[in-house]
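Problem statement: downstream parser choked on a complex file, so we are re-checking the raw output for the flavin mononucleotide run. The parser issue turned out to be on our end (a line-ending mismatch), but while we're here, posting the original submission so the record is complete.
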Amino acid sequence: MKIAVIYDSKTDNTAKCAGWIAAGAAKVAGAEARAFPIGKVDADWVKGCDAVIAGTPTYMAEMTADMHMWLEREAPKLNLAGKIGGAFATEQYVHGGGERAISSILTFMMVYGMMVYSGGGSKGRPVIHLGPVGMSTPIDSYKDLFTIYGERMAACAAKA
Ligand SMILES: Cc1cc2nc3c(=O)[nH]c(=O)nc-3n(C[C@H](O)[C@H](O)[C@H](O)COP(=O)(O)O)c2cc1C
């Protein structure tokens, strides 16, 4: 079972989260996980994935323009229909709009026929409603959240 984590990142916070998610996913038996910045996606590898997770910094309470462009132009080439989808974000401020950015990515995924999963609000702590949001001050304190999210996404993909 294969999982791709695809992200935009300008100052490395979202990249770190992507790495933690991939490491968490790889803890699940039989899972192989790789993280890619949007400019360096291995399309053939992603096409063979069971789950695809996308992450973005929050810009103006939304995903970045680059992530929006990638979802619009490149994601349709990746045979996403039927795969498990998830999304995450980083932000600077506690009400900075990370969940709006996640929601917008999940909307793209639904349009592409993916089956979106939040990471499980019913799974107990950490409670994840739409997807995990990490704050940039400092991002390292969110390592456990993103690692557990990766495990939950891989466990979901393993059952699908
Ligand atoms: C142009 C710009 C717009 C931003 N807008 C927001 C915002 O609306 N809300 C927020 O909480 N943080 C905002 N930020 C902060 C980033 O979301 C935050 O630093 C993020 O972790 C950066 O991710 P990266 O290190 O992966 O590039 C903005 C940063 C930039 C450069």
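For whoever reads this later: The helical segments are 13-25, 43-47, 65-73, 98-111, 143-159.
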